[in-house]
Amino acid sequence: MKAPRKFTTEAGRIIYSFPVQSFPNLVNNIYLISDGDLLILVDCGSGFAEANDQLLAGVTAVSHQFNEAISLEAVTHILITHGHIDHFGGLPFVRQFTSAPVGVHVLDRRVLSNFEERSIFSSSRLDTFLEGAGVSTERRQQLMQVYLFGKQYYKSTPVQFLLEEGKPTVGGIEVFHVPGHCPGQVCLLVDDVMLTADHVLSRITPHQAPESITNNMGLGHYLDSLTKISKVPGVRLALGGHEESMGDMVGRIQAIKIAHDDRLNKILEICTEPKSLAEISRDLFGRVESYHVLLALEEAGAHVEYLYQRGELIAANLDEIQKTYHPVVQYQKA
Ligand SMILES: [Zn+2]
Ligand SMILES: [Zn+2]
């Protein structure tokens, strides 16, 4: 694992960062904001054994490398940037060391506090989505197993306070609500440093899923949220929930918007003939395996939904949709 890093804001606050391996193919950045008084932990990894070990090792490494008395016991507040398991799954583990209050946006609170219920609801919605996309029953069962893997270890944890836009949170940190990647996704402005979480990442375009599965997700919300965050003045440095730091956040946002435009145009080209979502996904991303199949279908689904909502795609098999209980929609360019 890479050595921890230290960033200093214009007001002299320190932001420490270190990576943890959340899942075999996913590394998350953990942040600790210190002003000598408060010690704020931002996100806490997936809760998997390896991630928990690395979380502890990372905090110790920060304390050694920068000669600061930092430990999980010394954490005064925990901020969760959004309700994805790689960001909050470690909460029950962290709770063993500190009773520091946990804050999250209201639209993701239930994911942390009513997790078992949310898992059942979101699985059911996802299954319906996959059925409508034209994924076979057998394949769907495999995908649902993949989806639920990694979600079986977390136990619901109460949330003590809410992160609200327009109301500075602990330490005067400014909160921006940026729905899209997740309903309660927030960016946190610490002086002139923006913690962008999974809203803006340095290399990949953050994952999108349709709002037919979860309200307040979806590409339309996401693109609006990109515009919103690009207008925040005075951001010198952006730090994402994964990957590297970004010196030019606005430039990175432009590149992400272009990537989505390209994908939307490609879908319109693909849909000169009627296509199911499963076919569109395969045309876009080729043949992928295990969890990536789900990610590809959701990503394609978010873009198709965006075009359908705006009348650029239409359903080509209305007759079948009218007569069938759970129809597979065939999309075609309007
Ligand atoms: Zn995420
Ligand atoms: Zn993430």
Named once each, the bound ligands are: zinc ion
Number of helices: 11
Estimate what percentage of residues fall within beta strands: 15-25%
Helix content: 25-40%
Q: What would you call the structural class?
A: alpha/beta
The CATH homology group name of the domain at 5-110 and 163-261: Ribonuclease Z/Hydroxyacylglutathione hydrolase-like
Record field, number of beta strands: 13
Return the average pLDDT rounded to an integer. 96
Radius of gyration: 21 Å
Helices and strands, in order, run as EEEEHEHHEHHHEEEEHEHHHEHE
Largest sheet at a glance?
7 strands, mixed
- CATH C-level category of the domain at 5-110 and 163-261: Alpha Beta
Quote the distance from N terminus to C terminus.
50 Å
CATH T-level topology of the domain at 5-110 and 163-261: Metallo-beta-lactamase, Chain A
- Order of neighbouring strands in the sheet with most strands: 1-2-3-4-5-6-7
Overall outline: globular
- Low-pLDDT runs of 5+ residues are none
Which CATH architecture of the domain at 5-110 and 163-261 is right? 4-Layer Sandwich
3D architecture notes:
It is built from eleven helices and 13 strands. The protein has a domain at 5-110 and 163-261: 4-Layer Sandwich (Metallo-beta-lactamase, Chain A), CATH 3.60.15.10. Helix 7 links the parallel strand 10 (193-197) and strand 11 (237-240). 40% of the residues lie in helices and 18% in strands. With 334 residues, the protein is α/β, with parallel strands linked by helices. The mean pLDDT is 96.
